[in-house]
Design a protein that fits this description.
Elements: E1 13-18, H1 32-49, H2 54-59, E2 62-73, E3 82-93, E4 96-104, E5 110-122, E6 128-129, H3 131-134, E7 162-167, H4 181-190, H5 194-199, E8 200-209, E9 218-225, E10 232-239, E11 244-255
Antiparallel strand pairs: 1-3, 2-5, 2-8, 3-4, 4-5, 5-6, 7-9, 8-11, 9-10, 10-11
């Protein structure tokens, strides 16, 4: 099922952002969930512009699913800072369509690097589609990488130091009527104590999305600290009714106080 594209293909795309008050934490720094929202929205807008977006795939009974996101935060943007968010598709690996991101300040300094891996799924039967069989333009893309994304299988830790529970609510849902990808990061951050978050900031994240969450479903969040590297945490989110993992992540922290 190949989609013929009448839109003009552009290898990269960028948007300007100004960090809003409600996108920051109590220190005035942008929150992780806001970074994820910037990346997700910029990717979506670029996909729409070049004919790879939600509306075009919807016509063919297909949709995009974010499978993996890797982020490195070099410096946190702060309130009222003007940013440029740049994105470009960077290749295909197996069934994954890869996409890169850079967030820069007004001087061009790189503040955030990110790489992501996406799947194209059919609504009928939830079958994975090869990107090259859907879009011709995957042969024309820029192969340069912001980060070298890790696509290896992630394993959850059995022991944990923090346990929290959350129920998916109306405000967590997106246009697909599932919990939005960025909301999981907010669930994770809210599982930590205020004291810990006041003294530490996320330096890098690797998130593997492996399932979907719907309204009123209950979830268990467990966080494990690496005994040899206490600044590295392994995280799992499980559906408690089905006892099924829907997300595994690695968060690396840096002390800021």
């Amino acid at each position: 099922m190949k989609i013929s594209n009448t839109a003009q293909y552009t290898s990269s795309y960028q948007e300007m952002q100004c960090v809003r008050n409600y996108e920051t934490d109590h220190k005035g720094n942008i929150r992780l969930v806001s970074i994820l929202n910037y990346l997700q929205e910029t990717a979506s807008n670029h996909a729409e512009e070049i004919g790879w977006g939600f509306s075009r795939l919807e016509e063919k009974g297909l949709f995009w699913v974010l499978s993996r996101m890797q982020i490195e935060i070099i410096r946190y943007p702060h309130w009222r800072e003007k940013l440029t968010v740049k994105t470009w598709p960077s290749g295909v690996e197996k069934f994954y369509a890869l996409r890169e991101f850079l967030i820069t300040d007004e001087t061009g300094e790189i503040l955030v690097k990110a790489s992501s891996a996406w799947l194209i799924i059919s609504r009928e039967g939830n079958r994975i589609q090869r990107p090259q069989r859907v879009f011709d333009e995957f042969s024309e893309i820029d192969n340069s990488k912001a980060l070298q994304i890790n696509l290896e299988k992630m394993i959850a830790e059995s022991d944990f130091d923090i346990e929290a529970f959350v129920t998916a609510k109306y405000s967590d849902l997106d246009i697909n009527n599932h919990v939005n990808n960025s909301r999981y990061a907010e669930w994770i951050m809210n599982s930590y104590s205020y004291d810990f978050l006041s003294r530490n900031s996320v330096k890098s994240v690797l998130i593997n999305y492996s399932g979907q969450a719907k309204a009123d479903e209950d979830f268990r969040i467990t966080i494990s600290t690496d005994k040899t590297k206490p600044d590295e945490h392994s995280i799992e989110i499980c559906n408690t009714q089905e006892n099924k993992s829907i997300l595994i992540a690695k968060f690396s922290w840096i002390q800021t106080d």
